Amino acid sequence: MFKTSLLAESVSLTKIGAMKISIGSDHAGFELKELVKKFLSDKGIEVSDKGTYSTESTDYPEFAHAVSEEVASNGNLGILICGSANGVSMAANKHEAIRCAICWLPELASLARQHNNANILALPARFISEELAFEIVDAYLAAEFEGGRHERRVNKIALC
Q1: Is the pLDDT of residue 14 over 70?
Q2: Predicted pLDDT at 15
Q3: DSSP β-ladder status, 120-124 and 100-102
Q4: Which one of 37, 64, 82, 115 is at 20 to 30 Å from 49 when CA atoms are compared?
Q5: Catalytic: which of 27, 65, 82, 95?
Q6: How many CB atoms lie within 10 A of CB 50?
Q7: Residue in 27, 65, 95, 115 annotated catalytic
Q8: Is 117 contained in some domain?
Q9: Residue 20's domain is classified under what CATH number?
Q10: How many structural domains compose the chain?
Q11: In what order do the strands lie in the sheet with 20-25?
């Protein structure tokens, strides 16, 4: 098991200072998105909020596409949140340059970055606690793509 405190400490201040995260959610993920935004801001990470801005019912693809477009254009990382994380992940992964991973454990988030070069993290708001969400985000941000054999595999993902 990962020790979250070690993961959080492993994210260097230089890395954090240069980091910008695009974030978005549907209505089911709105409250968790607001908590994650504050969590990131408190770490000194710049956050670009692509919506939604309330708990009023919305269509998740709008926000998944907005985050995906920003991540694809600027090379930064993204976080998407909906009830199960399935919908936002499916929409995000329609974008050629996006590798969105649904993660409900810190270990999955770390491996998504290390082995799959995931550039968007999808969180299932209805299935994880606030504390677990923070641990997952820390693991995701602390991990780095390992390249090597994983790069060869990642390069085979896109069909275009």
Answers
A1: no
A2: 55
A3: parallel
A4: 115
A5: 82
A6: 23
A7: 115
A8: yes
A9: 3.40.1400.10
A10: 1
A11: 46-49, 20-25, 77-82, 120-124, 100-102
